[in-house]
Design goal:
13-stranded mixed beta sheet, 3-stranded mixed beta sheet, 23 strands, 378 residues, single chain, alpha+beta
């Protein structure tokens, strides 16, 4: 049973077995979601306790509300303009029976509000408490990630309903990996981040694991400009930080004493610019020297330069006809500020943080950008 007319955003409840239960779009408020490259989506929204209980009683045949929205049981799928945007699983349901002045008077005319806050996270987090012991020899990297998911779901009671795309991107890089009770989520992320051949991945709203050379697209339909007569950015922030800059990394692998694996990677240019700055990183589960060398080199590439992550705020009015996606590459320009003119260039969207008002309008869209690995001539 659906409630309400057509909306820009729709929030649907689905069972753990893949059955659509209900559309609660008209009941949800305080809606907010975050999409992050190679990480789990985050969704939060609120419900009025009385309104949701009445909906269950009158529109869903008396369904018990606590079975309809239950942590680690209920899936939620979000649509935008009729197209599924992402899926997530409920992880927390919190009740606040104190007065909510922002919606005073909505609870049956009592002047008291009873708010239920829902938190859901994307399907990658179904793998954050799952561990695998397995060895791979000369195996392609995305194939390793795919097989980690297959292996953990093959356990007794282990399936979480994830399937693998039949047309995965292949890096062509062959690697040896030995995992001993290693977490599937973090190991998939580590494989994707290896600097000699990175890749992207996501989960479809229907739990299909997909890999890409680069997720997103080079957007020709939008340019973001802060300041000046052509400015279309509502807010801009930047943290130019060296707090986590290290240009010589000592990687420590498995073993003890003289048998312990070690690897060292350094960057001469960074050392000349910023002095020698060293860091020890532990990779305790790494058993093979080539794997440790890859991990150490990747850590160096990520940490050897000043970190600059511009955050741009726009609203739904500045959006192009096609919605943005993590991984999209967009030009960014800051006008009128010499101190910031090095920012101008092409950036990749690392994170999209969206707040939706009561009228379904995207009143704040925060885009976190990074230029690491971006081809400026694309």
């Amino acid at each position: 049973m659906d409630l309400g007319s057509s909306r820009r955003y729709e929030i649907e409840l689905w069972s753990s077995t893949g059955l659509r239960i209900a559309d609660i779009s008209a009941l949800a408020f305080n809606r907010h979601y975050v999409l992050t490259r190679n990480d789990a989506e985050q969704l939060t929204f609120s419900l009025d306790l009385f309104a949701f209980e009445n909906y269950c009683a009158n529109n869903l045949g008396g369904t018990d509300p606590k079975t309809l929205i239950a942590p680690y049981v209920t899936d939620i799928k979000v649509k935008r303009n009729g197209q599924y945007l992402f899926g997530a699983q409920v992880v927390d349901v919190s009740f606040d029976l104190q007065q909510d002045s922002s919606r005073a008077g909505s609870a049956g005319g009592t002047g008291q509000n009873y708010t239920v806050s829902i938190t859901a996270t994307g399907y990658l987090n179904l793998l954050k408490d799952r561990y695998v012991t397995k060895t791979y020899i000369a195996t392609e990297r995305t194939a390793i990630a795919t097989d980690l998911i297959t292996t953990t779901q093959a356990q007794t009671n282990g399936s979480v309903g994830i399937t693998n795309s039949g047309s995965q991107y292949l890096t062509t890089q062959l690697s040896d990996r030995t995992y001993q009770l290693d977490e599937v989520k973090s190991k998939a992320q580590e494989l994707a981040a290896l600097s000699d051949s990175p890749f992207d991945f996501d989960f479809s709203p229907f739990k299909v694991f997909r890999t890409y050379a680069k997720i997103g697209a080079r957007r020709q339909d939008i340019n973001l400009i802060y300041g000046g007569p052509l400015g279309n950015v509502a807010g801009f922030s930047l943290d130019r930080s060296a707090i986590n800059l290290y240009n010589k990394i000592y990687g420590i692998g498995s073993g003890f004493g003289t048998s312990q694996l070690t690897s060292t990677a350094g960057d001469n240019i960074s050392q000349l610019n910023y002095y020698l700055r060293e860091q020890i990183q532990q990779f305790n589960s790494v058993l093979l020297q080539p794997t440790l060398d890859q991990n150490t080199a990747t850590a160096l590439n990520l940490e050897k330069d000043i970190l600059e992550l511009p955050i741009v705020t726009i609203t739904g009015k500045e959006l192009p006809a096609t919605f943005l996606s993590v991984g999209d590459r967009i030009p960014l320009k800051v006008m009128g500020h010499k101190w910031l003119d090095n920012i101008n260039g092409l950036y990749r969207i690392e994170q999209i943080d969206v707040s939706i008002d009561e009228n379904d309008f995207e009143n704040a869209i925060k885009l976190t950008f990074d230029s690491y690995g971006v081809n400026q001539s694309e």
